[in-house]
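Q: Hi! First time doing this. I have a protein sequence and I read that you can turn it into a structure. Is that right? Here it is:
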Amino acid sequence: MCDSDTPQLAAGGERGKMRACDADRDRVVEFLSLAYSEGRLSKDEYDDRLAHALSARTYADLDQIVIDLPVPRAAVVPAAARTNGLAIASLVCALAQFVVGPLATIPAIVFGHVARHQIKRTGEQGAGLALAGLILGWATVILIALLIFGVAMSMSTGMAK
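A: Yes, that's right. Below is the predicted 3D structure, encoded as structure tokens:
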């Protein structure tokens, strides 16, 4: 059984005397490959250390192979930016107009404007969602205004006759 992540002390009390497993040797080989690709080892050094790593029996043997190489630093992964909830709500309300009618128009516009303000302030994601909600919301308002104007014009021409 290989438990190199949490090695237990051998009877003598020293980790270096413990036997290494295949996974330990594989980790050293990966470390050597990284060092070679970074230019820290020449081809001859890499080949020599690779042969020693594959034939190493104890942790002490493996430690001697990599002792003069720097430990690679962990890459910092930036946290994923959140998507603004009001931007999502704006788009959902704008799309809901097609199902429930113009009842969702005003919330789509309000949520869209508030979301764009929050996105500028906080740097969250979702500017496109908010913009799409605004466009669909205002397009519905304009369409309703044109419809009312058209009906009013047709009624006024109908009364003039």
